[in-house]
Amino acid sequence: VQLQASGGGLVQAGGSLRLSCAASGSIFSFNVMAWYRQTPGNQRELVATILSGGNTNYADSVRGRFSISRDNAKNTVYLQMNSLKPEDTAVYYCNAVDIFRRQYWGQGTLVTVSS
To answer: What is the 3-state secondary structure (H, E, C) of 38-91?
Structure first.
């Protein structure tokens, strides 16, 4: 299964973006799907997760502003990002973990928030 992330771009502070992560196959086999982000010189940071049952979790830095969701029919996971801040600027990666605990990564999509 391959993951294809899209939706990044340049936005002003306070604006919104929605990232999409489309899987080439069914996402039913993924227990966990997530979004990470990374800035130069830093480790990849977990932003949000969604379990197969729909439970979600967020990093403190984005809770209340970001929302992760999954559309099993479209084999896609979304990250709705509102009230964006310059510190949200990063390359965002989607991630999935299947029932055998194998990890899959999409290519990154760059989000740039200008002040």
So the answer is: ECCCCCCEEEEEEECCCCEEECCCCCCCEEEEEEHHHCEEEEEECCCCHHHCEE
DSSP secondary structure code for residue 14 in this structure: T
Whole-angstrom distance, CA of residue 23 vs CA of residue 33 = 11
Please list the helix, strand and coil fractions of the chain in percent, rounded to the nearest 5, in that order: 5, 55, 40
Confidence band (pLDDT; 50, 70, 90) for 108? very high
Question: Which is it for the CA torsion 56, 60, 114, 35, positive or negative?
Answer: negative
List the Cα angle 89/80/114 in 5-degree steps. Answer: 30
Q: For residue range 14-30, what is the model confidence (pLDDT) as tens digits? A: 999 999 999 998 888 89
